[in-house]
Amino acid sequence: MNETVIDPRFRNRERQPGLDLLRALAIIVVVIYHAALFGFKLPGRIDRFGWIGVDLFFVLSGYLIGGQLLAPLARNQRINLGRFFARRAFRIMPAYFVVLAIYFLLPSWREYPEMSQPLWKFLLSVQNIGLHGGTAFSHAWSLAVEDQFYLLLPFILLFVNRWPPGAMIVPFVIVFGGIALRAFLAYQNLGADGVPFRGFQAWIYYPTWTRLDPLVFGVALAAVEKFQRQWWKRLMDLAIWLWLPALGLIAFALYLGESENLTVTVCIWQFPFIAVGMAALLICAISTRLPFCRIAIPGAAFIASIAYSTYLIQKLVMHQVLQLLHATPEAVKAGSTPIIALTSVWALVLVEVCVYAAATLLFLAVERPFLQLRKRLAPRKYALQK
To answer: At what angle do helices 81-105 and 345-362 cross, to 10 degrees?
Structure first.
């Protein structure tokens, strides 16, 4: 399928293969991670690392949305807040509200019976506050983080534009403030066997104020690109030396979390280490010194286009596949055995195909028409890929 035709955002501009590759990788590993939670596990439990795909999404969002907002400031023009928020609304809300309606109107379709948050929290995009896992639509926590980020970032950038020292002070305060806050929260929840996972989820993993590192690093890269061209050129030239240290830093951060219990060190440093590694990979993806920005991987652009729909609908589909295979907890309790083993190749292929097929339908039926409407009512002014 022609990705330029299917995605109206790229009718009049070229795609960036490196960014497509990163977005595609991010959604693929997240889907693999969530599928494992439903029993569709990969050999060696390598699927347990897939949660870092969300951090990659955060870095990409920081870079792309930050670049969109910084572009007019770099030209000594003002940010058009009306256009920005209108474009974000057309991009985010339609598919999100469709899936949200399914969760609240068709409870039998949910992956878990319980919705841990009331409807108003999902409508205001604050569902990540006080959230705990093992509940329906819990993966929407990251959408809340991004929505809150989109809401505040324009005003932060306007403030920094009026007070230049803030360009260094604000990111420093956010990143090191997050480190200090995670340290405080980790020690507050520390028990005899480390930090309890439930407390870690509720106080450190899900809240916005402890997950801003990758978003800030993404915006910082966009700021360097727009305002410090010499620095940016040096980063692009260094890219050939960055990919291996980036992967090493991410691997080290994941290794820290392999201990039997959650430690204070993991709570404090794992997220910023991963964020720095992901930011370095983003540099590698867009540098002309490496092939990623020139060579389009077949299918990556299409998967990147449907990534948002995929993220929204994935768990609903996984639950339906479990029902199809008679592998739900209720069926198992009733004595039913799965039609095929969930860890078999066929089960893994089936759940992946179903997730991306449903995401394609959601994209074509809901997301794409509103992107076309956005193009007519709130056309973009600067060439970006978000």
So the answer is: 130
Nearest to 59 by CA among 238, 286, 251: 286
Specify the length of the chain in residues.
Answer: 386
Which amino acid, 361?
Answer: L
Report the C-alpha gap between 4 and 12 in whole angstroms. Answer: 9
What token pair was written down for 292? 């990623």
| The residue type at 144 | A
User: Is it the case that residue 9 has pLDDT exceeding 70?
Assistant: no
- How many angstroms separate the CA atoms of 278 and 220, rounded? 13
φ, ψ of residue 294 in degrees (nearest 5) = -115, -30
Q: What is the largest CA-CA distance in the chain?
A: 68
Within 8 A by CB and 6+ apart from 155, the residues are: none
Alpha helices in 128-228 (DSSP H): 141-162, 166-189, 197-200, 213-227
Q: Tell me the mean pLDDT in the region 276-303.
A: 95
* Rounded CA separation 347/30 (Å): 17
The answer to whether 65 and 386 are in contact (CB under 8 A) is yes
Distance CA 72, CA 36 (A): 43
Q: In this structure, are residues 356 and 310 in contact, taking their beta carbons and an 8 Å threshold?
A: yes
Joined tokens for residue 249: 């830093």
Instruction: Tell me how far apart the alpha carbons of residues 13 and 8 are, in angstroms, rounded to a whole number.
Output: 10
Q: Are 211 and 170 in contact, with CB atoms under 8 Å apart?
A: no
Confidence bin at 337 (pLDDT 50/70/90): confident
Looking at per-residue pLDDT, the higher value among 2 and 242 belongs to 242
> What is the per-residue burial (b if ≥16 Cβ within 10 Å, else e) of 288-306?
eebebbeebeeebbbbbbb
**244 contacts: CB under 8 Å, gap ≥ 6:** none
* Distance between CA atoms of residues 153 and 69, nearest Å: 9
For the cut 80, the answer to whether the pLDDT of residue 384 exceeds it is: no
Directed axis angle between helix 229-256 and helix 213-227, to 10°? Answer: 160
- pTM of the predicted structure, to 2 decimals: 0.93
Q: Which of 279, 270, 383, 380 is nearest to 57 (CA)?
A: 279
CB 111 within 8 A of CB 136: yes
Mean pLDDT over 311-320 rounds to 97
Token output for 183: 């340290």
Distance CA 151, CA 215 (A): 13
